[in-house]
Amino acid sequence: MKCMMLFYCLCVLHGSDVIGAEIDNLKKVVARLSKIPEGLNDAYCVNRFFIKRVVTTHTCEYHCPSYKAYRWNYVFSYPPKHPSQLVVVVKSLPEGTKKLDRSVLGRQLWMVDHLIQKTESKNVFKVEYKAAIDLYARSLEKKAGRNVPVVKLTADQRTLSLLPLKHIQYNQKSFQDWLVKHQLKRQEGVGEVDYARRVFLFLASYFDYKYEGTQQDRLLKTVCASKETDCAGMSAVFVALMRSQGIPSRTLAGRWAKSSQSNLFGSTHYVQQHVIAEFYAQGVGWVPVDVSSAESMIGETKRQQFFGQSPANFIIFHIDTDIRYHAKFYGSDESALLQSPAIQLLGVGTLKGAKMKETWKVEINK
Q1: Which of 40, 130, 187, 264 is most buried, by the most CB atoms less than 10 A from its CB?
Q2: How far apart are CA 254 and CA 247, in angstroms?
């Protein structure tokens, strides 16, 4: 036991050193970005208003017929506080606790560490995760003389929303060459909102939608060359373009605020997962965009319904990608997206034939 605890402590200390060095290198890239003058978005504002409270129930049932476990660990996202939502309460059965992920962003996670009792199954594990969340609509509109309060970003918040993370490496030569080829640099005197709208419309017409599941390659080099990807890939390219021009931006990974039915998208596992993006415009605030929903529309007018509009129909699980967490039994692990839980087991046997079944239920709390 002492050796195990010592190993864990060394891992944590080493991890802290790595994160410190990593963020220092990323900050150097951010420091070279140009800053956009204020006052270029004076015509716009974002209105925000409460729509409804929902209660979500996510159940995860893991079957591993060839494995006999005596302990299991469950890792899931904890919905963040955000302009589009306010978390009222989160609970699970078995009970869990909040932890921080081990990336430079330090996002909140929900973890359940369960020691299996003698009367419990050794190869079937189930977690019920419930959350009550207030949802707010956001709408980009013409200001028309109205004074709408705007929360300014701190220097640290701005930096975190400009980092060239793994799936948003805008500083790579291949992405910079692609950006120049398609004339996507921001022109002097153009504000964040007008530039973002141009990029949004370009991406909605440039990409074809293709969803291949959790193992899909969504790195910038791949998706820009193939011209086909899913909501996460399109959102990552949008964010990369914004950040490359010094505009704070981020992806928002979560699920639609409606119950799942078939759990399939074609033949691929799907339980209402979705990814959108948002950018920060000075004097306006965070502005939502949904590139992949716009891609399915024909014509700019219909596509612009998904620019600057968030009608309280989406629940955010985590901000940005590449969640790093301490895998209770095996050191550390990373998930590009954590829209479904990660399960780790301790026991004997093989995981041959193992399957995970999910349900997603959303109810309006009247």
Answers
A1: 40
A2: 23
What are the start-end ranges of the E strands in the chain?
Answer: 44-63, 67-77, 85-93, 97-100, 108-115, 124-142, 208-209, 228-229, 249-256, 264-265, 268-269, 273-281, 285-289, 309-310, 314-319, 323-327, 331-335, 342-349, 355-364
Contact status, residue 84 vs residue 313, Cβ threshold 8 Å = no
Measured CA angle at 254 (ends 185, 247), to 5 deg: 20
DSSP state of 146: -
Q: Check residue 306 and report its DSSP letter.
A: G
Helix 231-244, helix 173-181: angle, nearest 10: 90
**Single-letter residue type at 177:** D
How, if at all, do strands 124-142 and 309-310 pair? antiparallel
* Mean pLDDT lowest among 17-31, 82-96, 290-304: 17-31
Kindly report, residue by residue over 185-238, the tens digit of the pLDDT: 999 999 999 999 999 999 999 999 998 877 789 999 999 999 999 999 999 999
What is the sign of the dihedral through the CA atoms of 303, 306, 311 and 313?
positive
- Between the alpha carbon of residue 62 and those of residues 130, 140, 195, 215, the distances in Å are 18, 42, 46, 19
Closest CA relative to residue 202, chosen from 279, 300, 296: 300
Nearest Cα neighbor of 282 from 146, 185, 153 is: 153
Check if the beta carbon of residue 140 is closer than 8 Å to that of residue 78: no
CA distance 197 to 195: 5
User: In angstroms, rounded to a whole number, what is the distance separating the alpha carbons of residues 139 and 53?
Assistant: 19
Task: Tell me which residue has tokens 């985590």.
Answer: 318
Which residues are registered as beta bridge partners of 73? 113, 344
Q: How far apart are the first and last CA of the chain?
A: 50
Q: Quick check: 109 and 101 in contact, CB under 8 A?
A: yes
pTM to 2 decimal places: 0.91
User: Which structure tokens are listed for 359?
Assistant: 């349900």
Residue 349 DSSP symbol: E
What span, in angstroms and rounded, lies between the C-alpha atoms of 251 and 318? 9
